[in-house]
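Query form — protein GPI mannosyltransferase 2

QUESTION: What is the three-dimensional structure of this chain?
INPUT:
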Amino acid sequence: METRQFPHQTLVFKSAVISRLLLLTLIVLWRTLLNPYDTSASLNPDDCLIDDSRWRHRHHHHRSSNNSIGSKIESSIVWDSVFFVRIVQCGYEYEQTYAFLPLLPACISFLSRTVFAPFVAVIGYRAVLGLCGYVVSNVAFLFAAVYFYRLAVVILKDPEAAFRASILFCFNPASIFYSSIYSESLYALFSVGGLYYLMSGSKNIAVICLALSGCARSNGVLNAGYFCFQTMHRAYDALFRKKRGYLAILVLIDGALRCICIFIPFIAFQVYGYRNLCLGRSPDEMRPWCKARVPLLYNFIQSHYWQVGFLRYFQFKQLPNFLLASPILSLALCSIIHYAKSQPKLFFSLGFQESNEGQDFTPVLSSSGIDPKSSSKKKGNENLRQRKPIYKGGNPVELSVENGSPVNSGYLSTSVLPFILHLGFMTATAFFVMHVQVSTRFLSASPPLYWFASHLMISPGTGKRWGYLIWAYCAAYILLGSLLFSNFYPFT
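ANSWER: The structure tokens for GPI mannosyltransferase 2 are given below.
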């Protein structure tokens, strides 16, 4: 599993395994020691509301198991996990269930019909669905951690910094959701994996992965922004540097098609909802969103059922939730401000001007990316020129003696810029639009958060203090999250 380019990959995988075992142990421990706040988790109506032959054959499975193991698994299906499991059982019965995208239910359904099908007779159908959900989430996280490390090595060009950031990701403050029947693990796998393939030059695989991330969580469609950024710089390069307008048009068409492909799964699901809930109904029976010029079911559900909207959560009674989200929002804001202050021309020009070190901005995203297979050859050629390492603000930078131009490496490198822009949009959305307490898990799959934290941990003079603070935050939220969430108490 180890390679020269990714020397700590095995350690990252082992750390991911240890973190998932820790979380599952904490879930079992807290469920054993404490009584859940809401005991309705095991309740399950016997019949599906949808009168469809696709679901009728499953009705005989719906009754809860009398098996003690099955009962414990069923009682651990809490919060949004209830919706995901119910969707596997009965499909999308209610309008609000369309807020839960189909990738996780599809994976659970596949495993329950194949690998775990023999266990239905032992622990019951719903318990098997719960077990499959736990397997999907935890296994997906293991591979997400590996891709996270690979992406960090490619972008930061520093295996040690990438390793520190990856360990932080393995024990991130939203860890409870990555070990529960939630879509966070699948989103992280396909989002981070897709970005790794994009940076490695495998654009077709990247499109597939990022499109799948949009099947797991709605914010997966925002990953199209990376292709937009890439297309923008490649078109600029073709038009203004190479003076080839025809090439610029081809670049724009290619980028637009790839972005559309990333959006297609999410749009298709909206069409599916419109077909089920709007078509064949009289105007009086139609829901308001069905009559809209652009009938977006997801937006209506978020606004109507969960009161999601711009500044709608800014109420005095929500102050505790703002406090709960303040650590992750503060870390995100500091990471963006630090990058902007360190690279002002680069940041505010979106990379089109020279950086403050006098270097022409030629980001990884502007070309075909970094190919891990050929990176060793490039490194060999670079070593032909004598280099000497220097440190700027605690961030390792190399200067070529030949021309004195800085080489991208570390958190402040040009390659990090698109990730910072993406994080900025996500942070603003979490703070101004969403239920702010969801910020902890909403931002938890954003790589620059961990890259910045890793950068802080080696800052001269204050690195040790930052390290203690960051790890204390992660540990506290892992303990608090596993305690509250697993016992049906509110937590993000």
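ADDITIONAL NOTE: Strands lie at 387-392, 395-400, 406-407.
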